Amino acid sequence: MSEAINKVHHQLFIDGQWVDGDDKQTKEVINPATGKVIKTIAQAGEAETTRAIEAADKAFKEWSGMELKDRVNILRKAADLIEENSDYIAEVMTIEQGKPLAESKLEVIDGAETFRWNAEEARRLYGDIIPAPNAHHYEIIYQPVGVVAAITPWNFPSGMVTRKIAPALAAGNTVVLKPSGDTPLTAIAIFEQLEQAGFPAGAVNLVMGGSDVIGRTMTDSDTVRKLTFTGSTPIGQELYKQSAGTLKKLSLELGGHAPFIVHSDADVKASVEGLVAAKFRNNGQVCIAPNRVFVHEEIKEDFMTQLKTAVEALKVGNGMEEGTKVGPLIREDAIDKIKGQLDDALAKGAQLVTGGERLTEGAYVEGFFFKPTIIDNVNQSMNIFYEETFGPVVPVISFNDIDQVIAMANDTEFGLASYAYASSAKVIFELSTRLEYGMVGINEVKISNPETPFGGVKHSGFGRENSHLGLKEYVVEKFVNTRYL
Q1: Span 18-27, pLDDT tens digits
Q2: Which is catalytic among the residues 48, 121, 253, 473?
Q3: Taking a C-beta distance cutoff of 8 angstroms, is the pair 338, 389 a contact?
Q4: What is the per-residue pLDDT across 234-254, written as a single tens digit (0 to 9) for each?
Q5: Catalytic site residue 444?
Q6: Active site includes 121?
Q7: Are the C-beta atoms of residues 257 and 386 closer than 8 Å to each other?
Q8: 3-state DSSP call for residue 427?
Q9: Which SUPFAM superfamilies match (predicted)?
Q10: Catalytic residue among 54, 287, 430, 473
Q11: Which of 103, 111, 82, 93 has the alpha carbon at shortest distance from 29?
């Protein structure tokens, strides 16, 4: 057993204390690379979640009323502790989630930077003065929402946690976090650092357990004034409905189905490198991963040759092994979904270029491994054209006209991320303005940074994370009209 897994806590964190659930219920955490149980963790229900909400409510006055410089110093201390313990947190993440250790380490370091950036941005939560009649003063001030409930997914068990709680805390709110049941240990490892950073008891709380019970407790609570969620569109829609009764503020970062467009004047080598980096990061289990690759017919032959070489060179394996570029999928059902999409596409005329099968021999026998895959001749009759693929499959579609490719790229209910490679200023302008997505990467696939807004449109949700816009998601605007008598 890993020393990091032995070290990490297994309990809930409520009101500054590590505690078991009331009924002592537990859940096993599985290593997707081996299929083996690595830890058994405590589970919360309605009662424990309610206590966590009450603890956050009690701590809100102290945390929001703290001198700004003191609050900033605690946030900076949290960032330092996360970075200092990044090797430990990254190892926990790789073992419970599967991604290569180098990817895990970068994710943890990015999370520390998210805390640092939001600590500084808290100093710039400026209000506004509005011109007013004589003897009046019009002012807009920003105040924290109150108690924030956060629900995070399994694919970025560190990044999603820090992206949500850092701005919430920076704005003066207190937090109750529910991480994914598949990857709770990374969240626990982060909360171990928050415990040492100096937050008041109750300012940060962690509950693990059944999504239905904990989610409903959060949405039904009038004390919870903000819910932030990252996950699938159907679950986001359900949380949206459940929150209607309490009219709480919401941020929903939901499904994606990103197009990746390679125009005739693109740098083919750069586009292949960008595609492989973006698509096979976390084994394709990324909401902003390219899911439909549109390649201009004039350059397609060269592009496909380079892409096949690059994909077949990827090393698949346990994320703890040096040199691994592609780890396991999170669960068995992820493989079932990929196989279903591939079977449908191939039956309707798609061509298998490479991959297309589960890896089951030798070191792969117990884990959830799938060979990096490329299919060509994909069209709009196939499920994979419309269904988000959370896995290592590259579907390629040909095009010969910019209006045609923009129409196909926009032919989806999702609108999170999009990518395009081109050289012409006119083509770049057309793509960047007409693609119906919250984010567009032109000749670049890195579109997530602490200082830049992250979020989508249509069925990909609403609200923004990161940037000054992300911080504003955790405040309410108050207008003050003063008349001087």
Answers
A1: 999 999 999 9
A2: 253
A3: yes
A4: 999 999 999 999 999 999 999
A5: no
A6: no
A7: yes
A8: helix
A9: ALDH-like
A10: 287
A11: 93
